[in-house]
């Protein structure tokens, strides 16, 4: 595969447990990539970083597809973490792959990610991760058990201590919607990678290997069993350059040309009849709009005073993907008891929705006017987003209407 020349961020060396804050500078290195981006390099300040992110997310999706093929024939591939969240070799494999590749290209940019290696160590599963990562990495001979463990822990808790000021770092969700991953074809799962520069999200890439091409209402989350229509997609976003998608099936099969499609949120103007997605762990009756609208799951029977509820997708990022692509009008998440919002569940989705014309709102417990996202509020680890509370993601047109409705409703989001 041809090597593309690109400029990468360069920083003074960042060390474990030392504060990290430095300006962005550039140098030239090389990246393996199977496609170009949909906009000119001159228009995108972080073109090279996005190019590298697309490449590694592509390969992470390949890894997921390969692991999933053997998932249900191997007793050792479906696991439980201590918090009872399903996790597979793919979660750790994706984090290891992304960490290895991005550390090679951008050695001084920290990684904030979901997993750490403790579970692998205690269950003697490092060798399994090495096996799935080796043929996806650019330098397979560097994929050793020791390097895999170090790569995973590079994104884990306590890997870096940040200074209070805004910083630059990658945010990775290795597999958002792991429960969907282990269900087979029944629910979507997403690999998500974003770059924060001086406290602002500047680019994002989401890969969804089992995304369904059919945009009809009753197949939005891809629950059909017809695998031939599951093309999958890569979604990319860069600040000021929009949000774009490309068929992942074309990329994985090395077909050409690869045509990018610009994403736009849907044009729904009325909450009644809007397509709404909610967390699978929350019931419609627990959300504030339930006092004003009934939720129907059948698009053929949407009547007056109803909304269309899209279900059966796992994780947060696939819901952002649905809004950014125009398949859903609204994503509502009620305030959780823990009041904690993890960055990897939302960062890449936020920029993809914003660049597609939508809005994202994180509601504080007592303030429905909202406030801007503060990525530096978690001053030392950058693993939490504030304000913490409910989440409202819309196509923009419905945003103020829904906030007004919820504000006047006695329910709490």
UniProtKB/TrEMBL annotation:
One of its GO terms (biological process) is sulfate assimilation. The keyword Repeat does not apply. It holds the Pfam family Inositol_P. Mg(2+) binds at residues 114, 173, 175-176, 345. SUPFAM superfamilies: Carbohydrate phosphatase (SSF56655). It comes from the Eukaryota. InterPro entries: Inositol_monoP_metal-BS (IPR020583), Inositol_monoP_superfamily (IPR051090), Inositol_monophosphatase-like (IPR000760). Its cofactor is Mg(2+). One of its GO terms (molecular function) is 3'(2'),5'-bisphosphate nucleotidase activity. Keywords: Hydrolase, Magnesium, Metal-binding. CDD domains: PAP_phosphatase. Belongs to the inositol monophosphatase superfamily. This is PAP-specific phosphatase, mitochondrial. It comes from Solanum lycopersicum (Tomato).
């Amino acid at each position: 595969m041809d090597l593309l020349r690109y400029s990468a961020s360069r920083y003074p060396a960042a060390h474990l447990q030392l504060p990290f804050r430095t300006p962005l500078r550039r140098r030239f290195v090389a990246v393996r990539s199977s496609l170009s981006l949909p906009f000119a390099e001159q228009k995108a300040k972080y073109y090279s970083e996005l190019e590298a992110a697309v490449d590694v997310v592509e390969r992470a999706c390949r890894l997921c597809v390969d692991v999933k093929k053997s998932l249900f024939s191997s007793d050792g591939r479906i696991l439980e973490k201590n918090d009872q969240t399903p996790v597979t070799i793919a979660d750790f494999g994706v984090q290891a792959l992304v960490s290895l590749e991005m550390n090679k290209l951008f050695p001084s940019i920290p990684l904030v990610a979901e997993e750490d290696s403790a579970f692998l160590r205690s269950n003697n599963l490092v060798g399994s991760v090495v096996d799935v990562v080796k043929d996806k990495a650019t330098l397979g001979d560097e994929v050793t058990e020791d390097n895999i463990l170090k790569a995973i822990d590079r994104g884990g808790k306590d890997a870096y201590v940040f200074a209070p000021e805004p910083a630059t770092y990658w945010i990775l969700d290795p597999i958002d919607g792991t429960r969907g991953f282990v269900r087979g074809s029944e629910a979507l799962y997403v690999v998500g990678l974003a770059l924060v520069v001086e406290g602002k999200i500047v680019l994002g890439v989401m890969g969804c290997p089992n995304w369904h091409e059919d945009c009809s209402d009753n197949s939005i989350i891809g629950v059909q069993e017809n695998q031939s229509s599951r093309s999958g997609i890569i979604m990319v976003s860069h600040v000021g350059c929009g949000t774009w998608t490309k068929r992942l099936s074309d990329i994985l099969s090395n077909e050409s040309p690869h045509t990018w499609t610009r994403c736009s949120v849907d044009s729904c103007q009325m909450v009644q009849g809007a397509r709404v997605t909610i967390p699978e762990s929350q019931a419609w009756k627990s959300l504030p709009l339930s006092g004003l609208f009934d939720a129907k799951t059948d698009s053929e029977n949407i009547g007056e005073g109803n909304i269309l509820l899209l279900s059966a997708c796992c994780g947060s990022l696939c819901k952002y993907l649905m809004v950014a692509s125009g398949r859903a009008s609204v994503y509502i998440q009620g305030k959780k008891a823990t009041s904690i919002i993890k960055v990897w569940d939302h960062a890449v989705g936020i920029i993809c929705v914003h660049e597609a014309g939508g809005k994202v709102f994180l509601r504080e417990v007592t303030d429905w006017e909202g406030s801007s996202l503060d990525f530096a509020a978690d001053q030392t680890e950058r693993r939490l987003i504030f304000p913490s509370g409910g989440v409202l993601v819309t196509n923009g047109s419905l945003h103020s209407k829904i906030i007004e409705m919820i504000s006047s409703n006695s329910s709490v989001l």
